[in-house]
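Recap quiz, item 2
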Amino acid sequence: MDTYGAPLRDMRFILDHLVGIDSIAALPGCEAAEPELVYSILEEADKFAAGVLAPINKSGDLQGCRLDGDRVVVPYGWQEAWDQFVAGGWLGLSLPEQYGGQGLPKALWAPVWEMWFSANLAFTMLPQLTLGQTEALDVAADEAMKALYLPRIVSGEWACNMSLTEPQAGSDLAAVRMRAEAAADGSYRLFGQKIFISYGDHELTDNIVHLVLARLPDAPAGIKGISLFLVPKFLVNADGSLGAKNDVRAVSLEHKMGIHGSPTCTMAYGDQGGAVGYLVGELNRGIEYMFVMMNEARFGVSLHGVALAERAYQMALRYANERSQGKVAGEAGRPIAGHPDVKRQLLAMRTRIFAMRALVYPAAAWFDQARHHPSPEAAARSRRYIDLLMPVLKGWNTETGNLVCDDAIQVFGGMGFVEETGVAQHYRDGRVTRIYEGTTGIQANDLVSRKILRENGATLRELVAEIRADVAALADVRELAGHAKALAANVDDLERATDFLLANGSSDPATVQAAAVPFLHLAGLVCAGWRVAQAARAAQGGLAAAASAGAAAATGAAGVAGVAAAAGAAGAAESAPAGAPGAGAEDAGYLRGVLALASFWFATYAPQVRGHADTVAASACVGLAPDTALWA
Amino acid sequence: MDTYGAPLRDMRFILDHLVGIDSIAALPGCEAAEPELVYSILEEADKFAAGVLAPINKSGDLQGCRLDGDRVVVPYGWQEAWDQFVAGGWLGLSLPEQYGGQGLPKALWAPVWEMWFSANLAFTMLPQLTLGQTEALDVAADEAMKALYLPRIVSGEWACNMSLTEPQAGSDLAAVRMRAEAAADGSYRLFGQKIFISYGDHELTDNIVHLVLARLPDAPAGIKGISLFLVPKFLVNADGSLGAKNDVRAVSLEHKMGIHGSPTCTMAYGDQGGAVGYLVGELNRGIEYMFVMMNEARFGVSLHGVALAERAYQMALRYANERSQGKVAGEAGRPIAGHPDVKRQLLAMRTRIFAMRALVYPAAAWFDQARHHPSPEAAARSRRYIDLLMPVLKGWNTETGNLVCDDAIQVFGGMGFVEETGVAQHYRDGRVTRIYEGTTGIQANDLVSRKILRENGATLRELVAEIRADVAALADVRELAGHAKALAANVDDLERATDFLLANGSSDPATVQAAAVPFLHLAGLVCAGWRVAQAARAAQGGLAAAASAGAAAATGAAGVAGVAAAAGAAGAAESAPAGAPGAGAEDAGYLRGVLALASFWFATYAPQVRGHADTVAASACVGLAPDTALWA
């Protein structure tokens, strides 16, 4: 029941038509990412996800982690999976070549890591920590630290974690109290406790590199007095060999609703005289460096949303095609997928998954463009877009992903509530994705306050203009004119809500903050709807090209390549081998499926936009409510 | 952290102003339910819920149930709770007086049982089974069976369950295969397996009465061949004493995501020659009798929705008032409840809870009116309303309740995902409420097909006319004219969607079925919004009366009773003791709170109605989607 296969078809479609993977391969420094290599990597990743990671996902949930004396014991199979993951080169896929990685673009990274997260989120949280830490050290550390640590981190010899949270400092890192004292040798001694540290300890690797937020006794108050320290589990000699155990240890593990395979540790520093730590970058710039890690992590979590939804959907679809109950169109013994309401649920799930993926892959490409595009203007625009939409990607994709995991349980009915089928795990695991690396409320506040108000909505208006241009193009496609109209109305609502934020941002900040989460939902729906509309246009273009090629073939004028080539020429279909039996028919079927998802989107999700815009505009009611509204 | 106190203030407000509890007490046969008695019963129930049931809720979740050989072992404390529950007369509260119950009205039953469900859902599922079984036996059993069983069931001496589901027969009971063979003595022998049987076995009572669906070998196919059998765990002698153990036993328990304290059993019948069963009522009418139980159960589950939401809300509110994080209006150290987004979440939860409760208590009163109203027309109308809205009550309240439990976790942030705080339990427990006793999809199908199409929308139109009359009254209250306009638009959308169903019901049943769940959400929002609007009118009336009494007092013309009496005269405020210190001020504060909830409703939930109506109207897209839309 709980097997996994990557949705390669959707991945390719989105990479081809929404990302333009060939345009990414054309960027200087991204030459390796030529489409055929990308697709063969995806196929290999699928095998690894399905063959190595997925089979230990449920057992990991059942076994969980435990603290055995000082040792954190992770589930059976984790060690083998880690070793194979590293040996297969998957850890280094997107990491810098100068430290031993392969430096492949983010646009490839996104579908590959989506597979890992689908197959086994609890496991994959470990390698994910390597990505953010590598980025932060690359940005902030001095050359000696980079040379000593990064090759061993990128190779997977040593693992990483991110040690931020303390009991009184969750969303508010300004409240961090962990104390760092300067030692005579230029290093520091750290004292204090961190909580909620994913993979804070384990024995999967020879060493663990903790990046820890702490403050010096004389540091300024608040976030401007927080520094970032590198604390190795085992001290590292100058030649990279390992020395004594450092004064840091896991003192307890959390009992959580999900991700049981990921040890969530309370870590004690300095119980025996002080944990040896090394300053990363400059003093008191810790929050800035932390955000490098955090942004990397948030982008990853946006993939958690789509990944768990995909896994849960695959289970629900399989169940709906195996389970028989009641009569379907008057006939007994046919699977429940044929019941209109079950089909509606399946379409609801798949449409949302498609939309999340269509939203996040092109955003991954923005990273590549920001880093590699030869035009400084184009690079800067991509950077602006990713900065603006990061909280939407994280917030909306995880909110939406949770809804899909919830739908999957509903398709199973009573069998969804019992644990044996496994679908409940994705629902439980996924619940944390709206919390960790910043709750949806924190994302929404970031979006509204830091990303929109601070620049008076400039980037958002730039994006809106781009969406409007696509609306105009869409309106020219006769079959999709209805979608164009609906999307235009959605964009109007987005602008109306943005105007409300800008008009009230300085005079009534509390109302604007109360409007933030509804605004995030609105922004997510509009941006995802934009991508769905783009997909529909590509699909419609492919079908039109195929039809005209078919018509030409019928009159004896067709080229040899048939449907696929014709569709390819229109820039809007799969690159199935020309002339492969049935390839044309299969393509057309797939493309019609994409159009059906777009129809479902504009029937079900696009109509929700107006309500969110109305809620944003009425947000003053929150501030006006007396305390007596909250208790009876 | 996880204590419980009943929301007595809200309960009273809704009973006073939306139910009209005095009008229920005026019904013949309901005389005992005079308001002061009702409120003193609620206070006693609160003590029992808070003192006996709530304290063993979390421990029950942690311990769960287990099968020890043939014995089903329930959590620690269950036995004492059951004994006290029965001894306190709580089981018999609403049960017929002729069998030893107290026969109190459903309008009282609803708030009392809401408390049990809030305090401990897993435990309360057991006494809840008694209610449905009593009703079914009362309707269907012969006098001898009633005389032998019902007094012992109503007294709590024996427990009950409802044995319907089989592996191939979940939502579709027509597929029941359990075999019943006639024996020479007029009894039957049952053979087969039932699954998902809540409290299928345990040792809390001396005996357990199973009501079991089964079919005779020569019975007609489908639901018209299913009969209902009474199968006692221990055979019962003519004098009510217990005989031999019957041939029925629990063979396994499910491992579930929640309600761990409720044993969900797989039951084997007839392994040793046949379980002795007795026909209830007439042969082949089992589904009809089952629906008596099922309707009782569904109404109870509609309370599960509000009850778990209330419990989770109380935890979230307490946490938000204790937890400090970040600056609130520039000041550190103040609780997070002051953050606009957290306040928004709390208002979102409380508004939904208020709306669910305001929807369900007046529906409970419909039961009383249907049974006791001296006017046959009024009684029949109440019966029509409860029949029409039962699927909405069950479906919408559980959907909405789940959302509130989800919000509660979000308020806790990371502490919501770890199990120690206890808020995750309500989220896990609550997930099943949208599944058992008919999924939301089943409810929606019932609503659309059996309740609306079958009578061409007659009762719905009758209800809509009633709502429109309230809209007109609301429009006359200057402060609430905006709500009146919004509610009127919502009702328009409900009618538009209903017209769509009626127009397509026979020509395109698949599209109408695909529209059913969106329609159920729409109907729930409109009906709940109607009740919220009624509450706002009562609150506004109370405030206006208090203000004019205050003005009169200031000019020396006030009567002795002050604010409370003035408000009472307007039929729209709490009956606080006249002249009690601060009572007037407290009342006004409460009433302003109700108005704030209404404002939040019309800012946030009412605007969602149009989207659902648009979705209903666009439901043909489900049937049109090719299979290729469902897989990549």
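Chain A has a mean pLDDT of 94.
Chain A is about 60% helix and 10% strand.
End of item.
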